[in-house]
């Protein structure tokens, strides 16, 4: 299938090229994201292949349809950046990679916790400058702490097993309870109870209207003083202005984020020689107890292989008229 592949980096091209040898799709790579400014690049393509920060709103989908695009292949699981209703109206199939190493994201959430807690990033830099002092590197035992997990689907469930392994009390909130986790020792509770009792809160639910700014001032006010909050899910689950206020007051003791509400202007880019226009990320970067990674939770060899192979198979299934089991239906 003649496919315009947007938001590509060297690693995307490497893995897609490797797996395309058994599919032979005609792939054209663009570094730019797909949005209203770049949609004209899709003239003559049957499919577009996009990632988390491409913006497929109604206007973009209408343009894709008028140019003859029949398939949107997401190289990710989340689809909050695609107007699905409009895609359905225009008869454009939307396929995704529903799971690609949920372990990668669950393990990254744990990496954020361990780094924030034991300050290994600071120790690394100190030692490189021959500073062998332990001053201000005190952490806490994770064993015995209460970890609250919001969203216990693929990633949240694996994360629950990791923290159970650390000897934590694990409590969960989800609109659907997972019986296997209950059997493993996770106790489900209401959101307010989770906020009140957790030493560490990790977000693993999707970004939907019901979860937009789920962690806002009202939620932070209900949490324990000094709570650690981890977000590897989607940036807009947290109201950044309220998180900054909670960090300043000390209510929020640690914040680890792999996602950020305005990340599309920043993440995946080297801006080291640029002026950062976003004052909220700049403020977050100044806190000693905030750790930011640039949406790298998924970024393992295994996940890149799964993303490339599933994306190409999704295109083949649609092209050969079988339909794809990974098509998102509204
Ligand atoms: P999933 O669909 O398996 O699980 C999501 C869970 O959230 C489900 O159990 C669902 O019932 C629950 N949920 C839905 N609405 C809820 C609500 N209002 N309150 C609480 N829980 C609710 O998804 P997953 O594969 O576990 O992925 C979770 C999220 O992780 C995705 O939505 C995506 O945004 C994010 N993600 C991030 C990365 C990364 O690189 N950082 C990679 C992949 C996915």
Describe the 3D structure.
This protein is an alpha/beta fold and 330 residues long. The protein folds into two domains: 119 residues, Rossmann fold (3-Layer(aba) Sandwich), CATH 3.40.50; 191 residues, Rossmann fold, CATH 3.40.50.720. Helix 1 packs across helix 12 and helix 4 packs across helix 6. The strands form two sheets. A seven-stranded parallel sheet has the order 8-7-6-9-10-11-12, with helices on both faces. It is built from twelve helices and twelve strands. The structure holds nicotinamide-adenine-dinucleotide (NAD). The site of nicotinamide-adenine-dinucleotide has 30 residues, from helix 4 and helix 6. Pfam families: 2-Hacid_dh, 2-Hacid_dh_C. InterPro entries: D-isomer_2_OHA_DH_cat_dom (IPR006139), D-isomer_DH_CS (IPR029753), D-isomer_DH_CS1 (IPR029752), D-isomer_DH_NAD-bd (IPR006140), D-LDH-like (IPR058205), NAD(P)-bd_dom_sf (IPR036291). This is 2-hydroxyacid dehydrogenase. Belongs to the D-isomer specific 2-hydroxyacid dehydrogenase family. Keywords: NAD, Oxidoreductase.
């Amino acid at each position: 299938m003649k496919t315009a592949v947007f938001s590509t980096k060297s690693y995307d091209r490497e893995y897609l090229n490797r797996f395309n040898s058994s599919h032979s799709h005609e792939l054209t790579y663009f570094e730019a994201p797909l949005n209203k400014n770049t949609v004209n690049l899709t003239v003559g393509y049957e499919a577009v292949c996009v990632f988390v920060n491409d913006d497929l709103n109604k206007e973009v989908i209408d343009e894709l349809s008028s140019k003859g695009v029949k398939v949107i292949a997401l190289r990710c699981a989340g689809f909050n950046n695609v107007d699905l209703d409009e895609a359905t109206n225009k008869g454009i199939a939307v396929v995704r990679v529903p799971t690609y190493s949920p372990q990668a994201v669950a393990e990254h959430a744990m990496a954020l916790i361990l780094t924030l807690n034991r300050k290994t990033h600071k120790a690394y830099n100190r030692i490189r400058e021959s500073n062998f002092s332990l001053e201000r590197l005190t952490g806490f035992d994770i064993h015995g702490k209460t970890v609250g997990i919001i969203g216990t689907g693929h990633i949240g469930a694996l994360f629950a097993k990791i923290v159970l392994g650390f000897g934590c009390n694990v409590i969960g909130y989800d609109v659907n309870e997972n019986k296997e986790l209950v059997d493993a020792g996770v106790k489900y509770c209401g959101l307010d109870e989770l906020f009140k009792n957790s030493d560490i809160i990790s977000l693993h639910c999707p970004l939907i209207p019901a979860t937009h700014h789920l962690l806002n001032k009202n939620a932070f006010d209900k949490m324990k003083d000094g709570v650690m909050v981890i977000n590897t899910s989607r940036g807009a689950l947290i109201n950044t202005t309220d998180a900054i206020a909670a960090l300043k007051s000390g209510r929020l003791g640690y914040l680890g984020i792999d996602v950020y509400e305005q990340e599309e202007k920043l993440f995946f880019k080297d801006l080291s020689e640029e002026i950062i226009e976003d004052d909220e990320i700049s403020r977050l970067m100044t806190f000693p107890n905030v750790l930011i990674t640039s949406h790298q939770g998924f970024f393992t060899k295994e996940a890149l292989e799964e993303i490339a192979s599933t994306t190409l198979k999704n295109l083949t299934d649609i092209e050969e008229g079988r339909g794809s089991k990974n098509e998102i239906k509204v």
